[in-house]
Amino acid sequence: MNICLIMDNPETPRHPVIAVALQQLSTRHNVRLFDVRPLTGTGAIAQEEARSQPLADIYLLKSHAPQALDLALYLEQKGALVVNSWASSMACQDRVLMAQRMNEHHLPWPHTESFPSLDNLLAQPELLATLTFPLIIKSYYSHRGDLVDKVRGIPELRNLAGQWGQEPIVLQAFAAGDGWDIKLWVIDRQIFAARRRTPLDPDAPKEDYPISAEELPEEWARITLEIGRAFTLRLYGVDLLISERGPIIVDVNSFPGFRGVPGADSALATLVERLLAERQATI
């Protein structure tokens, strides 16, 4: 059967997890990489339309770039299987849409407000006077190199405006944690977990400290799997902050790289095999 990985990172063909999983799959299937970096959405669609072969049996959406999402939507409208789907991936890119989905499913998510731009917020002194600091500021749309920072007052917001003034943003209520982020990765409901020092500490190492399945608290696992159901995700990552009020979801990533997660390559290949078998059974 035919597998296509939609990508936008030049390192993907050498990725220690993704590349290994694709190599495993290539022994039984035709595997193709589609790099959308130099293309627009229209160009990516045109390039796929120009292929003489039929649509792939499964498309793995490893890119969050706008042109990749445009292509995913087009492919789904043509009847293709895209993992994760366009709608699921969009809900993980749009942080306001993500907040709405969290609230609908009563998941622990910080209060979130959006603004057309940071400059727009700074131009409203009455609104600025109502803000309670510290706050977390993020780009409205999640993307590589986006804005994620803790701000302690209006002067820090103004300092960010030099680089990020035109960026659509969200402000989120700050919750004090224990200095650690809980990293959870899910492949077909199989949970992998680790602790990592908070990225809000610029001097903190990015080393992961694995959490075994036996050590993983039931509440953390329940929240993580509920996110998958709420967003209809088969492959995803979750960041949890453990506050005095309990776990709070910090972020959800559709199709992370699973770098450093033992067994993720085999789990990914197994999921793709299962989805291909299910799809073949319906033909």
> Regions with pLDDT < 50 over 5+ consecutive residues?
none
N-C termini distance: 13 Å
Task: Report the CATH C-level class of the largest domain.
Answer: Alpha Beta
- Contiguous helical run count: 10
Strand order of the largest sheet: 11-10-9-12-13
Overall SS class: alpha+beta
What number is the mean pLDDT? 95
CATH structural architecture of the largest domain: 3-Layer(aba) Sandwich
**Care to count the β-strands?**
13
CATH topology of the largest domain: the name is: Rossmann fold
Task: Give the amount of beta strand, in percent.
Answer: 25-35%
Level of helix content? 25-40%
Main sheet summary: 5 strands, antiparallel
The string of secondary-structure elements, in order, is: EHEHEHEHHEHHEEHEEEEHEEH
Radius of gyration: 20 Å
- General form: globular
Number of domains: 3
Could you explain the architecture of this structure?
The protein is α+β, with helices and mostly antiparallel strands and 283 residues long. The chain folds into three domains: 2-84 and 262-282, 3-Layer(aba) Sandwich (Rossmann fold); 112-173, Dna Ligase, domain 1 (2-Layer Sandwich); 177-254, ATP-grasp fold, B domain (D-amino Acid Aminotransferase, Chain A, domain 1), CATH 3.30.470. 36% of the residues lie in helices and 26% in strands. The chain is built from ten helices and 13 strands. It has helices at residues 18-26, 41-49, 66-77, 86-93, 95-104, 118-122, 125-128, 154-164, 218-231, 264-282, and strands at residues 2-7, 30-35, 58-61, 82-83, 112-115, 135-139, 148-151, 169-173, 180-187, 190-197, 209-211, 235-243, 246-254. It has a five-stranded antiparallel sheet with strand order 11-10-9-12-13. It has a four-stranded parallel sheet with strand order 2-1-3-4, sandwiched between helices. The chain has a four-stranded antiparallel sheet with strand order 5-8-6-7, with helices on both faces. Strand 6 and strand 7 (148-151) form a beta hairpin. Helix 2 crosses helix 3 and helix 4 crosses helix 5. The mean pLDDT is 95.
